[in-house]
Amino acid sequence: MRKAMVLFASLFVATAWASSESSEGHGEGHEPSTPEYILHHVSDSNDFELEVPLGKPIHLGAIPPIRVGSCEPKMTDHGPQIPGLGEGCLDLSITKHTVMMWLAALLLLGTVLIWSNRDKTKLVPRGAGANLIEMLVLFVRDEMAIKNIGKEDGPRYVPYLLTAFFFILFMNLLGLVPWMATATGNLAVTAGLAICTFLVTQAAGIRAAGLGGYLKHLTGGVHPLLWPIMIPVEVLGLFTKPFALTMRLFANMLAGHIVLFFLLGLIFILGHPGVAVVSVPFAFAIYLLELFVAFVQAYVFTLLSALFIGMAVATGHHHDDHGHGEQGHGHAEGGAGHDHGKAHA
Amino acid sequence: MEAKEPREKVGSDGSELGETARQMRAAQPYIAAVWKLVGGAVVGVLGGYWLDKALKTGPWLMVGLSLVGICVGFYGFLREMARLGKRK
User: Fold this and answer.
1) Do the domain assignments include residue B23?
2) Which residue range(s) make up the domain with B68?
3) Which of A11, A180, B32, B35 has the fewest beta carbons under 10 Å from its own?
4) Quick check: A327 pLDDT over 80?
5) Is B80 a domain residue?
């Protein structure tokens, strides 16, 4: 093991040395600084390129942008800029993160279809793949759905939870493969996933409480004269949980990759190939940690989704148990058994 | 009559919930109460600011609605706390 580590480190030292020499040799055009290089690699773009070790990246081409609405470029101090969504321009361009999502979806479909296609006449699945899939599916059902939503309602939400878990897992893992990108390190992707959880949570709340009960929760249980203030407060409160889901997944995935790149970038920032002896093993350790984080983040997103759905369902059933006429109310947000505990006794 | 488990400890069907779910459900009424306190002020300030901009009424609507928002937030918070106190 020690020999392997020494070999691994020396390989990277040699690579870094050769790289620094080759970059000294070039010098034409604008050489991006290390932070610029890192930001370029973690950010989204519709320009596809393949990195070549010790060489210039190969440009595979750019997909022309697809924009809907009033998208005429506006002149600013920083040059022409495309208006944002708030100014009426919807950007539907196919970027590298979009492609990564498609790839993750295709891989997911292929893997699950192949591994779940077992001999149905036999009760016990055979093969590592089928057993692995079964173990993960059972984990999501028993440890996440049933433990957070309940035995009766939990299985109903298992398909969504499984989809979210495997999709996020595949996107996270794809980001660790060379030449690929981490789609979950993009705020738009995590926001899209959080919106899906938000919609499922609200649908679960409406299903359990009925539309009337759900809307009643939004009034905050106060006098109708106070509704103009209380309804926006409750509606705003609905978005706190998807916001937390969005930021947590995005920040965790992006931070891991930036740390990884910066550890390797230290060689170039400090300008001595000897730094690789320290930074490469560290980067390797972080890479292994990232592998673990890929599973943890998929798990946490799914667990939190199940928790929110469970709280929305509990609020709905709670509401049904006590009727609608009661003064006490719950919180609209997916949520939470409230204040009728006395009545249970 | 046999006492039922509080709602925070059981699923919709009365099954035992996981530890995290139980803790989250127990904490949720308090989080909701605090959100009312903060949210009232936030909605008052933002709503007043937006109305002031739209109607060009200077700072007055923002000041007024901030006070209203803070009062409604406090009222909602105290109401929720009183109910939680009664429950205990």
Assistant:
1) no
2) 28-87
3) A11
4) no
5) yes
The answer to whether the beta carbons of residues A197 and A135 sit under 8 Å apart is no
**Cross-chain Cβ contact B80/A339 below 8 Å:** yes
Whether residues A150 and B12 touch (CB distance < 8 A) is answered with yes
Instruction: Flag whether the ipTM exceeds 0.85.
Output: no
Contacts 24+ apart (CB under 8 A), B3-9: B3/A344, B3/A345, B4/A344, B4/A345, B5/A344, B6/A337, B6/A341, B6/A344, B7/A314, B7/A318, B7/A337, B7/A340, B7/A341, B7/A344, B8/A337, B8/A341
- Percentage of chain A beyond pLDDT 70 is 82
Å from A220 to nearest chain B CA? 8
B64 touches A at CB < 8 Å: no
Our count of domains for chain B comes to 1
| Partners of A81 in the β-ladder | A74
CA nearest to A103, candidates A178, A171, A168:
A171
CB within 8 A of A14, min separation 6: which ones?
Answer: none
Q: Show residues of chain B in contact with A222, CB under 8 Å.
A: 72, 75-76, 79
What is the residue extent of each domain of chain A?
2-45+95-340
Residue A18: pLDDT above 50?
no
Summary mean pLDDT of chain A: 82
Decide if pLDDT at B42 tops 90: yes
Closest to B21 (Cβ–Cβ): which among A147, A229, A339?
Answer: A147
Q: What is the pLDDT of residues B49-83, one digit of tens each?
A: 999 999 999 899 999 999 999 999 999 999 989 98
- Does B5 reside within a domain? no
pTM of the entire structure? 0.80
Phi, psi of A117, deg, nearest 5 = -85, 80
CB under 8 Å to B38, separation ≥6 — which residues? Answer: B73
| B82 in A contact zone (CB under 8 Å) | no
Residue B26: exposure state from Cβ atoms within 10 A (0-12, 13-18, ≥19): middle
pLDDT for A221: 80
